[in-house]
From TrEMBL:
It holds the Pfam family Glutaredoxin. It comes from Streptomyces chumphonensis. The chain crosses the membrane at residues 29-50. This is Glutaredoxin domain-containing protein. Keywords: Membrane, Signal, Transmembrane, Transmembrane helix. CDD domains: TRX_superfamily. Residues 1-19 form the signal peptide.
Length: 145
């Protein structure tokens, strides 16, 4: 759990330190802008922007029941963030597994990617797809797919 918050905490601490330096130099406007930018980066890189994650075992069980894809991701991954943001509201229809929280999920990703923890790895109908196009993932959610 703590590992997922390291990057966001670093953004908050760095932003606070830089903003404090700007305030001490007499630039409160610049400080506010920088702090806002760093807080935005922290929020986007936090686990909060992603739908609730579940275990790999639970995700695979649910996917077998409802046919929805499973997304293996990790906080701080820009490709995961791109997928999440481009999916918009439809992202909550997918089953999300944080590989930093779930060792079985990390093992599944390594098995699909020649031993590498390359994310996002999206599993559709039992077949893994590494860093797929968000439009393609959205198409997998449509009733005709």
């Amino acid at each position: 759990m703590m590992r997922a918050w390291i990057l966001p905490m670093l953004f908050v601490l760095s932003g606070t330190a830089i903003a404090t330096g700007q305030v001490l130099k007499g630039n409160p406007g610049t400080a506010a802008g920088l702090l806002l930018a760093f807080l935005t980066l922290a929020g986007v890189n936090s686990p909060l922007i992603f739908p609730k994650t579940i275990s790999a075992e639970e995700a695979q069980r649910r996917s077998a029941d409802d046919g929805r894809p499973v997304v293996f991701w990790r906080p701080g991954c820009t490709y995961c963030m791109r997928l999440r943001l481009r999916l918009g509201r439809s992202a909550r229809l997918l089953h999300w597994v944080n590989i930093w929280r779930d060792p079985a999920g990390a093992a599944a990703v390594r098995a699909a990617n020649d031993g590498n923890e390359t994310v996002p790895t999206v599993v559709v109908a039992g077949r893994p797809h590494t860093n797929p196009d968000p439009r393609w993932v959205r198409e997998q959610l449509s009733p005709s797919a």
